[in-house]
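step=predict obj=LysR family transcriptional regulator n=297
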Amino acid sequence: MLRFDLRHLRCFLQVAQELHFSRAAERLHMAQPALSRTIRELEAEVGTALFQRSTRQVSLTVAGEAFLKECRAGLAQIERGVAKARRVAEGTSGELRVAYMDFAINGRLPELVRLFRERHPEIRLELHYMPTSRQQAALLERRIDIGFMLDGMGSEVMTSYPLAEDSYVALLPATHRLADVPGLTLSALAQEPFVIGTGDDWFGYRETIFAMCRQRGFFPDIIQEASSSQGIFGLVAAGAGVSVYSSCVRNVQRRGIVVRELDDVRAAISIRAVWEREHPSPTVQRFAEFLLSVWGR
């Protein structure tokens, strides 16, 4: 193990620059004998002479030239590391693990991510798709830092911020008999075959849809299920059935589908950003400040 430190390297670099022990000692604000002793300690540890000394001049040996090149590169790397550590501690650099579900990524999340990256280019966002239930578990286990999910999270250690409030809409095949009917209601879909998200990935949303249907005296006839939004869109476009989705669907390119407001549904779909209230990461706190101040305006 090498037994020299940055003090030895800074002394070496100053002597290599001045090629004069007295001037180097003055620059370093130390006595010349102490500087000479420090250089001898360094040479002993390296195992070879780094300077040729005479009564008239000082010069680098071949080994000293090679050592100088590597020292400069090493110190530059250390200085970058120090600067990086300071930025991470300030929350202006680092990484954030962000999870999202379908309605968030089809809604306002892309705009938020773009703006955050513009303001904090040194913070790297790792984006992961996760249904709401998996996000909640991942937050508690600190496998993610921020979650964009349905309805937030009922935990005292978590806090949240509203990203969007979307409405419920009906998705109909473009050729459906109700596509142009004015005043469409959820009740009017009681006899229709439904396309809906799978139980594992869409559990919470399914329960909400089922509850709204039961309030209107029916249970949806689920003819097809899909694990993704694109699967739902494709099945509806193919005429497999109708679906109830978030109004964020209007941000997505789609063919063969008609989007209709549901006049008898007043409830909103709440998408919230959720994070640990006392999270130790400065980048999480920086993101929270961004949401509360910049994005909020």
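step=describe
The chain has two domains: 6-90, 95-297.
step=end
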